User: Fold this.
Amino acid sequence: MKKTIQAIYKRYVIDAMSAMALGLFSSLIIGTILDQMGKIPYLGILREFAAVAMSPYVVGTAIGLAVASGLNAAKLALFSAAVCGAVGNKLAGPLGAFFAAVAGAEIGMWIYGKTRLDILAVPGTAIIAGGLVATVLSGPINAAIAALQEFVEVATLLQPIPMGIVLSVVFGMVLTAPISSAALAAVVFTVPGEQVLSPGLQLAAGAATVGCCAQMVGFAVASYRENGVSGLVSQGIGTSMLQFGNIMAKPIIWLPPTIASAITGPMATTWFQMTNMPGAYAGMGTSGLVGQVGTFLAMTDQSLLSVVLRVLLLHFILPAAITLAISEGMRKLGWIKYGDMALAGARQATPKPDNVEEDTNEQ
Assistant:
């Protein structure tokens, strides 16, 4: 039973949802960036490309293809899931696209090879199944998301400090865990038909971004002695998910960047008033600097210098300084030992000091 639950979790939460984020990047996110670039003189044609990339059917199709790819669907099932994703996104946004694509891909794979009419049977049953799932779930999904967004909106405006802590910590930990924080952000911070988030959701997205940055930058800096420059780059602008195996072996190493996110999150919702764009931007942190792009796009009405300074401080400097200070203190206490944060295959930056014993969890 336990193995079955683990297999289901891995297939649908880790594999499918992580792949869903790739679909969002390839459509909605890049479309938004191109739309802004199109405002530059002589680059107006980019806005035409962006309009197509950001359209609901294209975003849904990209999610459908990505999810089916993550599930290793056969070609006919994969292409059929693209249609399911388009239907799901139209009816219930990114989450609707996800469920519709999963249903279409799984039904398509189940049908595949069972008849001599695969060319008709697979896409036909897959699209019907995905469409029905999207139709049935659209009401509950839309109602649940609307309620969650209303809660986040009101709570963030009324209680910016505790909400800043919660949002920053949750999104940061989701980013480091094998779950897609980008997909979560796309669900929470996407309002159908709206190009700009309400004030509370804008602040919430800013706090979520800061929390993701704290995990990525924090782990990159704290583990530099074990992983060197390659580890700094792979975690700092790649993903802190690389540390998850080490976290499972020694959970205490997750504490320093999480504390950093709890400190910087409420700073983002109060003193610094950080915001971000609708969609998946807030769940990206410093990965490919997408979180920073979203921040600049969301704060174009403010002084560029002011935004740059706030981004440098809350997205990079404070997460690095706080995490490093806490992790070094924990190393001196013996709670974290050399090698606890070493990435598999990474070149260790400095030799292990002679007076430091190897930890049993050293990678």
